[in-house]
């Protein structure tokens, strides 16, 4: 697919038409307050992986409504002092995988906390282990329309809350330094990291790669690729509910969280990306509130974005912060 979105010079000034709800902050303050009524109860069980350079812990903590959420904590073997911690969120449909996977960040000398995404983990990778015990109104297959009838019921209210609690769980371990917490992820993981970047005020850095869940008013009409297309197919059947759906999505748009971003940020965008169109990524980047922000652009890439090239860029970039 050749370039299909705005030219790069227009992307650099593009702003979303998403309207922030008047009670956006009150909604999220109440949501997190309710979640914190449950004890975090973060548990770290050692896993025998056979690895000699990395220690792995099987993590369970209380997320939205106290529901148990799984994760992995990976530490460099031999660490005795608190380390900078990278909290990572996973792409759409994936799970936390197996304990011996994903060793990059622990290999840089940092603690690495990976959050499982509730209800996901069966579309690619090596699986997940976190249920989503909440029922919902009729939805299109996938996760994008689960509970889309109201913000209080929407699936990503639970996921974003889990993610904030994941940061709290990661910081609760004695070998992590809460003052040096980074959040990152690609695609859905990038969108979740934007939400956390707006909800957690004292992060040291945020790195969303080709982030999903941004600029919903444009994304849902610009691309016909899943997962955004799930929303259009839901509305194709449920005619006349567009305004209701737009209202729900406005509480979860990465653009509004970006406007509250208080940490340095490294974004990435791919100009041939039909899954997360570049204009939707730039809408979040241009809204990011902290002045220390950079976006890497991959001219001829689709949703794979910078891949391992961008991983190397993140490693270099984070040296300035952790």
TrEMBL record:
Residues of the active site: 187, 273, 303
Gene Ontology biological-process annotations: polysaccharide metabolic process
Domain Acetyl xylan esterase stretches: 1-319
Segment forming the signal sequence: none
Gene3D superfamilies per the UniProt record, alphabetical: alpha/beta hydrolase
One Gene Ontology term of the molecular function aspect: carboxylic ester hydrolase activity
Residues binding substrate: 92
Tree of life domain: Bacteria
Pfam families: AXE1
Name of the molecule in the record: Acetylxylan esterase
Species, as recorded: Streptomyces filipinensis
